[in-house]
Amino acid sequence: MTARRKERIDELDVLRGMAILSVILQHALGVFIRRPEIQFADAAMIGMLFNITKFAVPAFVFVTGAALVYNYYDNLDYPKFLWKRVKDILLPYLIWSIAYEIYSNGLPATNYLWLRGLAKDLLYGNAFYHLWFVVMIFQFYLVYPVFRSLFRKAPAILDSKLRFAAAVGLLAAIYTFIMWFSSSYIPSADLHAGSKAVQVIFIELRDRNFIYFFFYFMLGGIAGLILPRWREFVARSCIWNTYVLAALFIWIGFELMQGVSGGLVNLNYSTSLKPSMFFYTVSEIIFLYGVSMVIANSGSVIFKFFNLAGKYSYGIYLVHAFLLIYAVGMVDRFSLTSHHLLAGVYSFILCALGTIAVVMLISKIPGGKFLIGPIPGK
Question: What family does the database annotate (predicted)?
């Protein structure tokens, strides 16, 4: 049986659009905060902006969970489902990974060693700095039947507010422990597993292991399963959650400043894989979901822009790293050496607009979907 096609949830496209633009902003700011001549004031402001945009990857996981449960809860033809994701996700990923490999290392010698290195980079998402995300998100498609079976048992829990609160609280507690394990225990204990495979998958490459992002997928799945009630919850939470978000933002900002050494701000203190950032990110996703609902209901130019960016977000994600290189080069010509924050913002604007234009052009050519993934309306 095939999955029943349902209408698109507009606010998910808006949230996805916010997330992809935040990814580009993160990467643009990251270029300039690492320059040794940066002033502390610029670095501190970039760090604060970086914290604001850290919701992006968890938001993508949240949207994936919501969309999958919303569309594939009743019926799932798993082989057809998985084959579609191979064509829509892995094929463009393969093409762009090869392109980034050639850009970084030049034309390859067609020999066994190069093919083995490419295969390893594809498996780990190491062909370029941003491609790890594809490896991580695809794991959710692979194991979706397991999550689906859990969600199909959820109605009995969802019917009781007490059981529902207890279940979400338990998931949050488990995930908080995983975040503590990742950010505190592993580094302090210099943990080494007995197995090389376990060491690589669960310790060295934990930033692309789906287990370390499962809560956002489950939260998105809950939203997709009880969409009207989820929207009501988001609307009711707008006031109190704003205060919670502000308090958590101060907390993670304080942690970021604790990592300052020699006037340099270390963005590694803004990792998503720690308890404080987990709490902050959940609050921010709920807040931005509410904003997305308002934008989606407005039908304004802002909605059309975020909606467009959201629908083409995968292609934008794959392409933007190339465009950022040239955007930064253009901005550097203006010699904004004492204005790194401004240079980062300018680079972001050029990269975002340029990438959207390129992806739109690719969508018009025959076979464009093999480069940027699914094309809306086709």
Answer: Belongs to the acyltransferase 3 family.
pLDDT of residue 2: 40
Cβ-proximal residues to 158 (8 Å cutoff; 6+ apart), any chain:
164, 222, 225, 226
Predicted local distance difference test score (pLDDT) of residue 27 = 97
Alpha helix (H) residue ranges in the chain: 10-33, 40-53, 56-71, 78-85, 91-105, 112-124, 132-142, 144-152, 155-158, 161-180, 186-189, 196-198, 214-225, 227-236, 238-258, 275-298, 301-311, 313-332, 340-364, 369-372
Amino acid at 223: A
d(CA 294, CA 290): 6
pLDDT at 115: 82
Ranges of residues in the chain with a pLDDT under 50 are 1-4
Angle, CA of 362, 367 and 368, to the nearest 5°: 20
Angle between helices 112-124 and 132-142 (to 10 degrees): 70
- For tokens 């919701």, the residue is 55
Supply the pLDDT for residue 292: 97
Record the pTM. 0.94
C-alpha–C-alpha distance, residues 158 and 165, integer Å: 9
Q: What pLDDT, on the 0 to 100 scale, is given for residue 378? A: 64
Length in residues, the chain: 378
Assigned token pair, 204? 């060295």
Q: Do the beta carbons of residue 226 and residue 161 sit within 8 Å?
A: no
pLDDT of residue 154: 75
Closest CA to 219 of 175, 161, 163: 175
pLDDT of residue 201: 86
Residue 3 is given by DSSP the state P
- What residue spans of 72-213 are helical by DSSP H? 78-85, 91-105, 112-124, 132-142, 144-152, 155-158, 161-180, 186-189, 196-198
Report the half-sphere exposure of 281 (CA within 13 A, side-chain side).
Answer: 31
